[in-house]
Design a protein that fits this description.
Length: about 190
């Protein structure tokens, strides 16, 4: 069965973006980038794939989920179809302005995920952000892949925004640390 994987960059103090939803404080150079480009090619946006001369193999992910604020970061750069190689779902209760290649939904995200998981076999489903959507999907997340960056934000968008106290155990299944200070931790949630 397909898994929902929350694959996201995070600061040492648990933030996935600045208060204005940007994430440019995360390092985009360093030895960790080779692993990201090699192992998470499917999660690269179209402009990055084009610049690197790569084609997404769709072996890790074939679907991406994001909240409107995560999607809107690309809109500010004129990018309204960030992952044309993936099935794209953008969740918002109020906004629907997106090209036909992007499915916008006001439905319960957990119900959509359960339907995607029950569908035909395929690659995993990537939860790309943001924190509110991650909170809504907390019970559906099978794995957390955290790119822990050597930076603190002090404020911003938390990994799980608005999620109440609901402990859930996780098993660390892989960890790779880099000279850049980035550590990629892969957790299976129980």
């Amino acid at each position: 069965m397909r898994e929902l994987v929350y694959y996201v960059a995070v600061s040492l103090d648990g933030f996935i973006a600045a208060p204005d939803h940007t994430f440019d404080a995360f390092p985009v150079t360093g030895d960790h980038m080779d692993t990201i480009v090699r192992d998470y090619t499917d999660a690269l946006p179209a402009p990055a794939l084009a610049a690197l001369g790569l084609t997404a193999p769709l072996t890790r992910f074939d679907t991406v989920l994001m909240g409107w604020n995560t999607y809107a970061v690309g809109l500010a750069q004129g990018l309204d179809n960030p992952y044309p190689h993936l099935r794209q779902y953008v969740f918002s209760r109020t906004r629907t302005a997106a090209p036909a290649a992007v499915t916008t939904s006001a439905e319960d995200p957990a119900a959509v995920v359960r339907e995607l998981k029950a569908g035909p076999d395929g690659a995993d489903i990537w939860l790309c952000g943001g924190g509110q959507l991650a909170s809504a999907l907390a019970g559906e997340i099978d794995r957390l892949v955290l790119k822990v960056n050597p930076v603190t934000f002090g404020a911003g968008i938390p990994l799980f925004a608005g999620h109440g106290y609901t402990p859930r155990n996780a098993e660390l299944t892989a960890s790779e640390r880099f000279g850049s200070g980035v550590v990629i931790n892969d957790y299976r949630l129980n």
